[in-house]
Amino acid sequence: MALSSISKLNWAAATNKSIHHHSDSYFKKRIRIAAAQSSGGGMAAEYEEGQLERPKWTGETPLSRLVGALISFKPLYSLLKLGARQVLISTAEKTSIPWRDMTNEILDSDVYKEKDAIEDSSIVYPDYYLNPFHAYDEGNLSWLAAAEAEAATMSMVRRAIPNASSLDEANQIVRGNWLQAIETHHNQYSGYSSIQDILDIGCSVGVSTRFILDKFPSAKVTGLDLSPYFLAVAQYNDKRRNQGKEKVKWIHGNGENTGLPSKSFDLVSIAYVFHECPERAIKNMAKEAFRLLRPGGTFAVTDNSPKSKILQVTIVLTLSCF
């Protein structure tokens, strides 16, 4: 299969990339870059690059190793964790996102039963997934992380599009442009073949999955994630919104090796996952996505842009909050 094009769409704090393949000759060096048009689906937003190509404390550098060592010191990590959470909670409270109410609603529900039904006990978690991140000691393997995930996502969208008048407008820009780029690209390079089967790798609690389903309502949508806690929340919310029925098939699995049949999806999407993964995991997930795609299918990636001024300022604020 060949990479025939990459559609790139920058907005305030993220970069969307739709990667498309046509044949089985893997990764030929035929790559084009084209600006994706957001007509009919998204809204324009000004994108401003930060001063840094990337923060000096990232990557394999002496400073990054020093930062890693400092973060591994538990008392300091606890302070950093508190600061990071407070930045998101503060943004939520200032923009009418009911963070605490949303969290308590999940924690006080019957969501725990969903985990028993969806968890695959044979899953072996990769080492990087067991590290603390996102201000949680257990990473994504905890009920608190799962309960707060949707509110945190809302808060990040508001931080990404600070000039939006509402969360809905911010989502129109962030999600609308992403979905329109996918549709435009697929129509252009797939001969207008319909998108019938969709896989959302790293679906978390299903926020991105719901947007995909709304955009392609006739498609069969599957959400896959490594966290049974997140999937439990996703499945619980899916049933709650649809009178006990599930519109999405939720799978507890590893995006690096899903175990799903080859050439079984028209669209594979990975949204806001790669920035949390080591290079080896990113490569494995990309290879797996191409294995899963049917000829003419579309592989879409959207993630944070490290060159975004807003994102760089947010990271600095988070690190300084402790």
Biggest sheet architecture: 8 strands, mixed
- CATH fold assignment of the domain at 96-319: Rossmann fold
Query: What CATH first level of the domain at 96-319 would be assigned?
Result: Alpha Beta
Tell me the overall shape.
Answer: globular
What is the name of the CATH architecture of the domain at 96-319? Answer: 3-Layer(aba) Sandwich
Low-confidence stretches: 1-42, 312-322
Q: Widest sheet: strand order?
A: 3-1-2-8-7-4-5-6
Number of strands: 8
Quote the beta fraction. 15-25%
Structural class: alpha/beta
CATH superfamily name of the domain at 96-319? Vaccinia Virus protein VP39
H/E order of the elements?
EEEHHHHHHEHEHEEHEH
- Nearest-angstrom radius of gyration? 19 Å
How many helices in DSSP terms? Answer: 10
The span between the termini is 48 Å
Q: Which percent bin holds the helix content?
A: 40-55%
Mean pLDDT: 78
InterPro entries: Methyltransf_25, Methyltransf_Superfamily, SAM-dependent_MTases_sf
Organism: Erythranthe guttata (Yellow monkey flower)
Pfam families: Methyltransf_25 (PF13649)
Domain Methyltransferase: 198-297
Task: Please outline what is shown here.
The protein has 322 residues and is of the alpha/beta class. The protein has a domain at 96-319: Vaccinia Virus protein VP39 (Rossmann fold, 3-Layer(aba) Sandwich), CATH 3.40.50.
Structural write-up:
The protein is an alpha/beta fold. The protein has a domain at 96-319: Vaccinia Virus protein VP39 (Rossmann fold), CATH 3.40.50. Helix content is 43%, strand content 17%. It has helices at residues 62-72, 74-94, 99-107, 111-118, 143-160, 167-189, 207-215, 228-241, 279-292, 309-320, and strands at residues 3-11, 14-21, 33-35, 197-201, 220-225, 248-252, 265-271, 293-304. Strands 3-1-2-8-7-4-5-6 form an 8-stranded mixed beta sheet. Strand 5, helix 8 (228-241) and strand 6 (248-252) form a beta-alpha-beta unit. The longest helix is centred in the middle third of the chain and has 23 residues, at 167-189. The radius of gyration is 19 Å and the shape is globular. The N and C termini lie far apart (48 Å). Residues 1-42 and 312-322 have low confidence and may be disordered.
